[in-house]
């Protein structure tokens, strides 16, 4: 992965919000949703792109054996200081990390699309290798229709920390862009760029990596008329959707 924006963006985003360890109760709803979407019992969990570890921490309360992989050392240090000590926390690149076991569940939420299509395919192949024969992966995919529609929209995303956001869309490369800055420093922006995939496109990538999509779960979106986040929208209008995959 050669994208040089990745570590600076997530490190600065972490600093913007100062203390990312929200009330763990805020994540119990996401944990319940994960259990519902998996639809069967599971024990061994791998979360890649785990950030500050808050989701893994919440999931660990449901008696799971969890391994996390996160690239940004500052986020890993925070996770190690605040997470359940039973969680195995790795600071590594998920394109090259060496893992010696397979998992019932692999999670990659809110981050797929960092690299090129070739790198996405490599990651999906790795996810296939990490899964047990009867295991599942849940992966969030950014939906191109939404990002085309919201291009240029700005919003205040944190009243407390005075963080602004501007959505964008790179039509040539089919990538969403997400620019953040503090109101007091409008010229000091950080931007992430993540590939967007239609359902047909991500289905093809998964097939090439030996994975079968068995469910699509549309996520929410910001209603630009009311500026409120709607938790559930249609598959064609959502900000991102989640896929559930298994080995073919």
TrEMBL record:
Gene3D superfamilies: S-adenosyl-L-methionine-dependent methyltransferases, Vaccinia Virus protein VP39. It holds the Pfam family Methyltransf_25. Residues 45-135 form the Methyltransferase domain. The keyword Cell membrane does not apply. Keywords: Transferase. CDD domains: AdoMet_MTases (cd02440). The keyword Chaperone does not apply. It comes from the Bacteria. GO terms for molecular function: transferase activity. This is N-methyl-transferase-like protein. It comes from Viridibacillus arenosi FSL R5-213.
